[in-house]
Amino acid sequence: DVKVTQSSRYLVKRTGEKVFLECVQDMDHENMFWYRQDPGLGLRLIYFSYDVKMKEKGDIPEGYSVSREKKERFSLILESASTNQTSMYLCASTLRVDRKDEQYFGPGTRLTVT
Amino acid sequence: GDSVTQMEGPVTLSEEAFLTINCTYTATGYPSLFWYVQYPGEGLQLLLKATKADDKGSNKGFEATYRKETTSFHLEKGSVQVSDSAVYFCAQNTGGFKTIFGAGTRLFVKA
User: Fold this and answer.
1) What sections of chain A are H helices per DSSP?
2) Which pLDDT value is given to residue B83?
3) H or E element, residue A42
4) Which positions in chain A touch B44 (Cβ < 8 Å)?
5) A82 within 8 A of A113, measured Cβ to Cβ
6) Rg, chain B, Cα only
7) What pLDDT score was predicted for residue A40?
8) Is the dihedral of CA B62, B66, B70, B73 positive or negative?
9) Within an 8 Å CB–CB cutoff, is residue A55 touching chain B?
C-alpha cells in the first residue's frame, strides 16, 4: 500500500514565523501535491511537483513556496505565517497523471497561526 | 471550465437507510471519476473509481456508475452504518496535473 506521511498532525505557530510542512511518500510516485482544505471551500491546490526540483503553481500559491530535493519528499513553506493561513493542509501523490490515476493523501496537518 | 458539482450536505440518515449522493461533472475530455472519503481528523482516501463510460466502481458496499449521457457519477449504498459517517468528495481527472474536487458532502448516520 502507498503510504503518504506528513511531519505533524497539529501545529501552532505565531504570525510572522517561517513554517515548514513536510510530506514523504514511499511508492516512488513522480507527482506530489499540496492542498489546503477550508470549510465551505473544499480542496484548493497550492503547488504541485512533477519531478525532483520541478514545481508548478496551483490555484492559490500566494504566501507559499515549495521544495522538492528528493523524489519522495515535498515540503511546503510559509515564508511569514499569517492568521489567514490557519487551515488543514493535505499532501498527496500520484504515479502517472497521463493515466488519470487516483491521488493518495496523507493524514493532514492542522495549522493554527496565532 | 471543467467542474464537479455534488449535493450539499449535511445528509442525515438512520442506520440501514439507503444512501444517494449526487455528483455531476463538466469536462472537455474523457475524465476518470472518483469518490474519496474523509473520516474525522484524517486525510482523504479513495473509495472507488471508474475510468470510462458505463464502468461501475464499487467498494465496501458503495457503488457508482459512470454515466456519460447524463455526465453523472452518483454514489449509492443500500444500507448505511454509523461508521459510514464522513465527508464524501466526488472528483474528476482528465489526464492533467489537476484533479478537480467537488465541495464535499457530509454524511451523518444515526444509530
Assistant:
1) none
2) 96
3) strand A42-51
4) 43, 90, 92, 103, 105
5) yes
6) 13
7) 80
8) positive
9) no
Q: Do A102 and B46 touch (CB under 8 A)?
A: yes
Q: Which among B89, B94, B102 has CB closest to A100? A: B94
Q: Chain A residue closest to B102 (CA)?
A: A42
Instruction: Give the distance from residue B18's alpha carbon to the nearest chain A alpha carbon, in angstroms.
Output: 25
pLDDT means per 10 residues, chain B with 111 residues, are 90 97 92 95 94 95 97 97 97 87 95 95
Q: What is the mean pLDDT of each run of 10 residues along chain A (114 residues)?
A: 88 97 94 92 92 94 97 97 97 83 93 98
Distance from CA of B34 to the nearest CA of A (A): 7
Q: Does A89 reach chain B within 8 Å, measured CB to CB?
A: no
Question: Quick check: A32 and A45 in contact, CB under 8 A?
Answer: no
Distance CA A43, CA B87 (A): 12
Question: Taking Cα atoms as reference points, which of A85, A33, A75, A37 lies closest to residue A56?
Answer: A33
How many angstroms separate the Cα of A94 from the Cα of each of A62, B38, B61, B70, B98? 24, 18, 25, 28, 11
